[in-house]
Structure formats: C-alpha cells, structure tokens
Amino acid sequence: MYKAIIPFSLWVVFLTPHACQESPITCFGFPDGKTYAKPGTDNEFYICAAGIPVSQKCKDGLIFYPSEGYCAKEQGSVVTPPPVGPNVCENQVDGTLYPSPSGGSDYIMCKNNQMVVQKCQNNYVFDEAYGGCVENKCSK
Length: 140
Description:
This protein is mainly beta. Helices cover 6% and strands 36% of the residues. The protein has one domain.
C-alpha cells in the first residue's frame, strides 16, 4: 500500500484564500427574497433563494436601492418602482416568481406583497416552467 505525502507548502496553496475574492454573501437564516447590494456597483445585487445568494442585475438604466430591495430609475431622492401592471404579488410568499409581461430575460419577484422587476444574467431567459433563469439555447 502506498501513502501519499503532500508537502505543507501545497496545503497552504489550497487553504489560503485569494486576496481578489469577494467576501461571500450569506443567506443562512434569511427568508427567500432577502436582497443585498453587490459591493462596487449600483445596479447589481444578490437575492436569497433556498438559502443561496443568486447574483442579479437591474435592467439597463435602473439602479438597485438596497433599502427598498428593488431596481428603479434614479429620480433625486425619490425612488419609484417601474409600473408593470396589476399586482400579482398581493398575498404571495416572498420569493414567488412570475414571468414579466415584457418576456425574455425579465421576470417579477414578489417581496413584501410588492412586485420587483428582475432581469436574468446575460444569455439567460426566464423559464416559467422551471421557475427561474435558464440558459438561452436559441441564441447560440
């Protein structure tokens, strides 16, 4: 029987975190739909889904407002959510997802009985049957 001997210097390489890594966002103990601003940007954020932080990006021209938990146009100190039609999120559980009327990569996430318009990452579209963003195989 052979025993592998791994020099200590290799263990250090594998166990030492890299300086360029972002500090991890945690969703442990938080409900689905909890949002966190992504450091260093005003239009990206994380949303908790099943205990996992999922990176999201606002639609072009919108910025993320952490205190409100949604993307909207900057209008001085007043934040106005974009209109999207009737409120499908009334009496729904936070984190419930619906396709957006505009379709494609847009979708609606429910938070505090309010609709929050979200956008899938590049080359992903919202799939209602799957209940989330999936790779857009049609664009290849």
